[in-house]
Amino acid sequence: MECVISWKTSDPPPNVWSLRSVRTRLLAIALLPIGAVLPVVLGFALFWWLGQFDELLVSKAHDDLIIARQYLRRIMERGDEQIAALAQSAAFAESARAGGLDSLLEERRKVLGIDFLYLTAADGAILAASPAGARPAGSARWQIVGAALGGKPRTVIDVFDADALDAVSPGLAARARLDLVPTPAAAETDRTIETRGLVIHSASPAPLPDSRGGTQAGALVGGSLLNGNLGFVDTLNDLIYAHAGLPGSSQGTATLFLDDVRVATNVRLFGNRRALGTRVSKEVREAVLGRGRTWLDSAFVVNDRYISAYEPVVDSTGRRVGMLYVGFLERPFLLARWAMVAAVTAAFAVAALLTVPFLLGLARAIFQPLEQMNRTIATVDAGDLGARTGTVSGQDEIRLVARRFDELLDRLQARDAELRAFARELDARVEERTRQLEETRRQLVISEKLASIGEITAGVAHEINNPIAVIQGNLEVAREALGPAADEVQTEFDLIDQQVHRVNMIVTRLLQFARPDEYAGYVETVVPADVVTDCLVLVRHLLERASVAIETENTTTRTVEISRTELQQVVINLIINAIHAMPEGGQLRLRTQDEDRSGLEGIAIKVADTGVGIPADQLRKIFDPFFTTRTHGGTGLGLSISYTLIARYGGAITVDSARGRGSIFTIWLPAARHPD
């Protein structure tokens, strides 16, 4: 029989650059991850990282501000304690009676390191003052003095004008005076000098003898000027930044403001000159002094930007009179940010330069032979049955396909007649084979499911036992390395041992499910209540996280013969199932009791929850392998394995449940037989 081979097609020649062409698709597969997906992923990662970086900087500034606030508060408390101690001292009382208060106040003022100290009566009369020549006036206008005369000691920060400063200590106003330095970004002002002083102001009740032999109210008042107090800011700066480990040339700074003027600071104007008299930026002034909020952000400080934290300082009347500031130079962190961005970008660029040519070469090695075979097919379709693809470079599957394609063309014409002869017979055989294959396929599906269990089990045993062995080995190394010190964490080590053993037992349970005849647990006499107690310890974190209340009851007087680990595994599985059944929390009741069945003595462990319950149509399936009611996370093996384990020891697991009223799982085991 003569056979004529002819391929007919009406399709136009393919456009190799169309979206449906193999060339375009291969190039897209090769370049899309590098050119589109990876840049987007890197962009999101950098965006997230930079945001976290900024939050960490602001968080550090906030923590530093808390330390500064506590340090300032401690200084004020110490001043309060010192003034109160002096006012209540025997030396003060003796000097008050003998009339030698001026010398005592002078001596104690120098010892305490404060700038002024005076004693006032309830009528405002100054009974004694230090330093010599001090003439405190108008003390009654200070709220803390009135509070001290009323019996309540107080320490606050107050603002003294120049006259008040000179009145309490001659020359103190000169120390407080600062020439204002023009500062970029500060609010406009007509002032050129600052004559006021920021003072830590303390007053304490001081009983005074009166003419009738009794006592009258008095107040001992003292204070320290903070203007120019470099020791305060230097100590504060060392306290916060001495061991902070700021990167590069970043510098930590601290400042105390009177209104918006730096009166005590370690910020440098230039060289070693401190920026005393410079002013805070306008935006910070409006936020902190104007609106009374804490500033946690980048801010312009004198001549550069700092990661800054400002909070208002209030006087005895609650009025915002100044600010407390800490911060560190922003530039090194900006350089670190952009260095990271540049490093990631450069790494991506280098990776792309090295990877893209390689990927293009791989793609070209695929689509060029395919295009060559396509041209051969077009030639054969035109009527030239002698056309061949010829030799294709390379030693891959494409070359093999091209060679086999040529061999196919060689044999195609010779085989055509033979194929036609066997066509009808082949159709009949195909129909019969199709029927047989369908039946075989159904059997294979069942066989493959069962075989998969063995494969999964072997894989689990191999993949889990190795790291568990490493954990156990390193735990022993830790015990030997710690020596006697290991006794402090012996409980934790024991818990790790138990959990490692538990993992080994879980692997064994899987193997038992796949090959139950090859494994058997170590049988021992077990007290059921002890097993329940151990299980609660192991799942304690799950119970606390799920807000589940525990109720336990033990009335059993019997023991059972079973592998303790296997019984523990079953109880833990039931507890975890109960937790999952109570996603909004609830109550878990665990009870052990004596229970006889079919004339046999036994014990029962009941695990009851107040969860969602199990529908009636699912109760008969819950012990089937791979059946689970969870939408995610469940394997469907837990209850099946548990049922198999309990049945091996002559016991049973039963369940009583209904939708909406919780479930009660009961483990029944025959009691251990004890010789008389």
UniProtKB/TrEMBL annotation:
Subcellular location, principal: membrane
Cited SUPFAM superfamilies: ATPase domain of HSP90 chaperone/DNA topoisomerase II/histidine kinase, HAMP domain-like, Homodimeric domain of signal transducing histidine kinase, Sensory domain-like
Compartment annotation: Cell membrane
TM segment ranges: 26-50, 338-367
PROSITE patterns for this protein: HAMP, HIS_KIN
Gene3D superfamilies for the chain: 1.10.287.130, 6.10.340.10, Histidine kinase-like ATPase, C-terminal domain
Entry EC no(s): 2.7.13.3
An example Gene Ontology molecular-function term: phosphorelay sensor kinase activity
Extent of the signal sequence: none
Membrane topology designation: Multi-pass membrane protein
Pfam family membership, one: HATPase_c
Keyword Electron transport part of the UniProt annotation: no
Transmembrane listed as a keyword: yes
Keywords for the protein's UniProt record, in alphabetical order: Cell membrane, Kinase, Membrane, Phosphoprotein, Transferase, Transmembrane, Transmembrane helix
Superkingdom of origin: Bacteria
Class of enzymatic activity (EC top level): transferase
CDD domains named among the record's database cross-references: HAMP (cd06225), HisKA (cd00082)
Catalytic reaction list: ATP + protein L-histidine = ADP + protein N-phospho-L-histidine
Gene Ontology CC annotation, any one: plasma membrane
SMART domains: HAMP, HATPase_c, HisKA
HAMP domain span: 364-417
Entries under PANTHER family matching the protein: HISTIDINE KINASE, SENSOR HISTIDINE KINASE
Protein name, as recorded: histidine kinase
